[in-house]
Amino acid sequence: MHSTTKLQIGNLALGAILFLLAVLVAVETVSLTPPTQQATVGPAFFPLLVALGLAANAAALFWQALRGRVSADQWLKHDMAPMLIVLAGLVLQMALLTTAGWIVATTLLFATVARAFGSRRIVLDLLIGFLLSAASFYMFNEVLGLSLPQGWIVETFMND
Amino acid sequence: MMETLQLLFQGFTVSLAPINLLWAAVGVTIGTAIGVLPGIGPSLTVALLLPVTSALEPTAAFIMFGGIYYGAMYGGSTTSILLNTPGESGAIVTAIDGHAMARKGRGAQALATAAIGSFVAGTIATLAMTFVAPAMVSFALLFGPAEYFGLMVLAFVTVTAVLGENLALGMASLMLGLTLGLVGIDNQTGAARLTFGIPELLDGIDVVIVAVGLFAIGEALYQASRYRHEKEEIYALKGSLWMSREDWSRSWKPWLRGTAIGYPIGSLPAGGSEIPTFLSYVVEKRLAKKPEEFGHGAIEAVAGPEAANNASAAGVLTPLLALGLPTSATAAIMLAAFQQYGLQPGPLLFENDPQLVWGMIASLYIGNVFLLLLNLPMAGIWVKLLLVPKPWLYGGILAFATLGAYSLNNNIVDLVLLWLIGIGGFGMRLLNVPVAPCIVGIILGPMAEQHFRRALAISQGDLSVFYNPMTHPLAVSLLVIAAAFLLVPVVLRLRRA
């Protein structure tokens, strides 16, 4: 596909998203309580302004895309596969976070992201990921008092 | 005047306390490091560090954030010069001649004029801020809700119209931010807006999630899709590391002119660092003895814009502290940091918390000295950071991004929101939609609504507070200026077409 076409489709998609959001905001807030004596402007007024703005903006984007007012040199080449691997790493981390704990989950996230960026040294990536997540775990939990999940490994073997 | 000096002196006693000196040093070191690392800017770093606000007392935190902001401005020039990849928009101009100098083997001189220029500009501009901020505060005391609303609309429009070439795309970013800002309980009536029955959304979407999602996740996804297509070449530092007599004589005037351009523009509600750096470049080119060298490694073209960039950073902090008005993405996130402490920058903060405000301002002077020491003799060491391989750089960024998002409320919903916003940020990067308006929208949107409703409550529903120049001259003129920023370029373009 020609890059101008891609950019046009992108602009149309963005316009469509804004338009849907406008409808959503309007439908969700129009039913809110009307203004009372104390407050002259109710909780629905500002959202409706935003909905109007969203709709107007969507119209501008449609107009711009259909008139071909997008310049093709703004579109750069990109690959979807590495980007999806990064996303997969994030999902994996979330899935493991509360069970396996921060250190394991984030070590795997680190290694997955490194893989997505073309690294082939899996063992080294895992090692560095481990050092980084262990250090951040210690730093934030012990020194700054946050509570990152330690997971069952630490719970089973370290806390007796 | 005397009073200001007295307050500044008190500020120095706060910031010279050993523990605060330590935070300033930590701030400038982190700031420089992240400024040097490609792909990470000051806004992302401050966003990633927002969780520490739960553990630090406010003065220490803001001394550190101030140091990070200034440090990132120094460090940003390094990637521009040696890699030709500006880390943030204020360093774009520096890359033109700075990189040309590096190709000629004069990278060390380019770094030196940038560092010393940043020191000169940062110090003079901080001095200017010391006196302008209290004046702005006394002006702001005249402001009522209608005026604050006008000021915020002006900030929306200028952030949108100034950043990025395409107005519709910039507005789209702003509108998305305003929409995200609506989510949660309306604090005047208690009505739940756009929460879709999800209890975690009742408190609203945290700015940290949006900022980290757009800057860190969105950027990492984008870079992952691009790394195969980008080739970077680092130019090693070689030869004499010091500036020659000629370099000095060609640099000092651009430093001062850059400061004079950067500070006032940065401190306007329309501020930012793009306009001052471009303006400084144009001015230096016009005044140069050898304008033909511009674009091929003219030292003036590094000295001037770098000074303008640092001066505008101090400029941006002025309305942030005095009015609570952020004019850049970093300032918007610093405002979010103030909100984490329940503090609202503005006249009241100067009144109630002089220790914090003046301690932070005084620490900026100290931070500048630290930065000069960190950057001049150690430039060669910082350059080594450029060698961190991308796989590890982005692995680390994502580890800290998820850490920041998760530790806000210790729940998984925030992580899912983080990816969704990150995917949105990726889409915005593909289409060249600027991110800053979205951040400013989500932070200022709820505040603008509050002022809007308060203004109408005071006037008992009379809308004329926004258009009658006799009763509210300030509010009306702010709104008129905002409308002009928005409409004049459109009209000009239609006329040309």
From TrEMBL, chain A:
Q: Report keywords, A-Z.
A: Membrane, Transmembrane, Transmembrane helix
| InterPro entries assigned | DUF1468
A Pfam family annotated for this chain is TctB
| Residue spans crossing the bilayer | 12-32, 44-63, 83-110, 122-140
The DUF1468 domain sits at: 13-149
Q: Report what the protein is called.
A: Tripartite tricarboxylate transporter TctB family protein
Q: Which organism is it from?
A: Microvirga aerilata
Q: What is the lineage of its organism?
A: Bacteria, Pseudomonadati, Pseudomonadota, Alphaproteobacteria, Hyphomicrobiales
